Amino acid sequence: MLADRIPIADALHGKALELVHEHRAASVPLLERHLSIGPDMAEALLLRIARETTVVRRVQSGLYVYTHGPIGEELAALHGFAQEVLVALASNSVDVDQLRDAAGRYGFSIPHQAAGNATVAVPLCLAQVVNV
After folding, report:
1. Can you spell out the DSSP letters for 15-67?
2. Is the overall model pTM greater than 0.70, yes or no?
């Protein structure tokens, strides 16, 4: 991808980051319009911001999402926990107790039930995968 190979001045990066915070949005057209740059440079700036900060995330469709504040923290926690689940699944060594510990490290609540069976407050799709 061309945007990965474009050198970016730190001053331009700083201006782009300020714009993203000011508008609470992240898009190629936003940066093009306000910084008077082309689409490749705007894409390169957003890729760098997404790579170096938690302010912006690039989603599968190629669009960027402003994730500063609580939503960003929640997304980072969910991403971290999901990565641990995926690693456990890939290694074929799913240990429910380790996954419960991981859930706790990422701030998910783990209510204990009388029968000793605990459920983790994570999205249903992950809970079904690990059968917790």
Report:
1. HHHHHHHHHT---HHHHHHHHT--HHHHHHHHHHHHHH-SSEEE-TTS-EEE-
2. no
Burial annotation 64-85 (CB, 10 A radius, 16+ → b, else e): bbbbeeeebeeeebbeebbebb
Of 21, 39, 68, which closes a domain? Answer: 68
Cα three-residue angle 25-84-71, rounded to 5 degrees: 25
Q: Are residues 76 and 115 in the same domain?
A: yes
Per DSSP, what are the bridge partners of residue 65? Answer: 57
Q: Which two tokens stand for residue 30?
A: 């936003």
Phi and psi at residue 106, to the nearest 5°: -95, 10
Among 68, 85, 101, the domain boundary falls at: 68
> Which of 56, 61, 43, 68 minimizes the C-alpha distance to 35?
43
**110 half-sphere exposure, CB direction, 13 A CA radius:** 16
pLDDT in tens, 88-119: 889 888 888 888 888 888 888 666 553 445 44
